[in-house]
Amino acid sequence: MKFKNLLITSLCAVLIILQSCNNPTASGSKGTSSNKQITATDSRGKIISLPHEAMRIVVLYNALVDDVYMLQAGDKIAGIPQQVYEMEDTYSFLSRLDSRIRNKSIPTPTFGGQSGNAESIVGLKPDLVLTFSTDEDNISQLENLGIPVFTFSSLNDEKILEELKNVGKLLGKQKRAEEITGYVSSEVKKMRASRETSPKKIYYAWSKGRIMSTSGKGSLIDMAITLSGAQNACPVPVEAPNISAETMYKWNPDLIILWNSKLSDVYSLKELAALPAVKNKQVFVMSPSFPYDPHTVKFMLFAKQLRHWCMPEYTQEMLDEDVKEAFEVMYGKKGLI
Question: Signal peptide position in this chain (predicted)?
Answer without folding.
Answer: 1-26
